[in-house]
Amino acid sequence: MLEVNNLECIRGDRSLFSGLEFSLESGELLHLHGHNGSGKTTLLRTLCGLIAPGQGSVNWKGTNIRRQRDEYAADMLFLGHLNGIKADLTALENLRILCQLDGLDVSDDDIWQALEEMGLYGHEDLPVRVLSQGQKRRVTLARLLLSKAPLWLLDEPFTSLDKAAVDFLQTVIAGHIEQGGLVMLTTHQDVSLTTGEVKQLRLGWKKDGDV
CB–CB of 177/171 below 8 Å? Predict the structure, then answer.
């Protein structure tokens, strides 16, 4: 379980939000909303330990994430709205390095398969710089197919994707949740995944039903 208690996040000399509390359990999706500048990305980066909160705590399985950095890093995958890949490397090379950083023991065959499933067949050996924005995004998202982390923190994962890729990504995320995974994501796009019985968290304002 991910638990957030009395969390405050500060940017510069301004408090983005304070007193924030919510939890996320196995098999749950939380959709994070908020206007530009409300602190969505800052919150996600705080949840993955890249930013220290002004006050409050982020707990994973009952322990503050700052007391279990290695264990938490192994249990969490954060994909930011930037792709975080190197332009001069191929899709295969990028994923090989990223998997090593994630501590994953995967073969090149595993990576080839993930790239093919993400619709990148025939582009695996091309330098990323020659790929379209959508293809670059697919390279990054292929990490989801290789990840063993139960907690996924996803910042605008559907950006630059065509409808087929959006639909496929929704299937991947839904499958992860059905298997007991935890997902928190932001998106400006209308996708069926974020409707129905899912948790909603809005920064900056609230309405009935929000956590």
Answer: no
Q: Beta-carbon neighbour count of residue 99 at 10 Å?
A: 20
Is the confidence at residue 206, as pLDDT, over 70? no
What does the angle CA 96 – CA 101 – CA 105 come to, to the nearest 5 degrees? Answer: 60
Look at residues 165, 88, 82, 85 and name the one whose alpha carbon lies nearest to residue 126.
88
Q: What is the DSSP letter of 211?
A: -
Task: Provide the pLDDT confidence category of residue 205 given band limits of 50, 70 and 90.
Answer: low
Unique residue bearing structure tokens 């997902």: 183
Calpha distance 135→199 (Å, rounded)? 30
Four-residue CA torsion sign, 180, 184, 185, 191: positive
Each residue of 93-151: pLDDT tens digit? 999 999 998 888 899 999 999 999 999 998 888 999 999 999 999 999 999 999 999 99
Biggest CA pair distance of the chain: 50
Asked if 29 and 186 touch (Cβ cutoff 8 Å), the reply is no
For 143-177, what is each residue's pLDDT tens digit? 999 999 999 999 999 999 999 999 999 999 999 99
CA gap 54, 66 in Å, rounded: 14
Q: 54, 15 in Cβ contact below 8 A?
A: yes
Measure the CA–CA gap between 131 and 95, rounded to whole angstroms.
Answer: 15
What does each C-alpha distance from 79 to 41, 82, 101 come to in angstroms? Answer: 11, 8, 13
* Residue bearing tokens 């695996």: 124
